[in-house]
Amino acid sequence: MHMQWESLANEHILGIAPYEPGKPVEELERELGIPDAIKLASNENPLSPSDRVQQAIMGALSHLNRYPDGSGFYLRQAIAKKHGFTPDQIMLGNGSNDLIELVVRAFMRPGDEAVVPHPSFVVYPMIVQAVGGIRVMVMLRDYRLDLEAMARAITPQTKVVFIANPNNPTATMVTADEVEHFMARVPERTIVVFDEAYIEFAMGARRSCSARSRRRRASRGSASATQSPTRTRSR
Ligand SMILES: Cc1ncc(COP(=O)(O)O)c(C=O)c1O
Is residue 168 in contact with ligand 1, taking CB distance under 6 Å? Predict the structure, then answer.
């Protein structure tokens, strides 16, 4: 008799609807009979890597017999210098997805709450569900993150709040003033994840809201609830 592997699996994981990535762009073009489709669904650069990047990759090929530097020593130094931080404040991941997942796994315990805007990046509620957390979904208002409602949704059980800036899929942004007002209402024990995976597309070289807000964190205030968010206990 075959083992029912599902009976051994973590029940939080079993309840997750699999994420379905879009089909390859070549397949879409073939299906629709169109050339030069532009794929906007992924966090990709439509321009090819620059010559310098291509040369660096070619130069690295002859060292592929070695493990890469897992601590990203030089990369963290370069990023820290560019953004005015120290290397120990920089953490690298396989894309921002990896870092979002690590934050949730590091800080959330079963029964902890995460405030999640909706609709937004589909991975947030999936990861919270995977660790047995409670997803507190807060609807967008006029396609924008409703930071007022998100602040009201924070309870003593809230461990993490996600802010996608710009938001996927609506492409709207929160303003620096909204962020500062919001941060003033977030308790110390709640971690706010600013996910700016698409910030360069939206702002180019201009500084992001979260970078401004990190430097000027306003004092905290109290909030009263007037709107009920959707609370979903992970199964
Ligand atoms: C808001 C948001 N955050 C993070 C990601 C993941 O991006 P990365 O390719 O950096 O893992 C995406 C990808 O679509 C996204 O839309």
Answer: yes
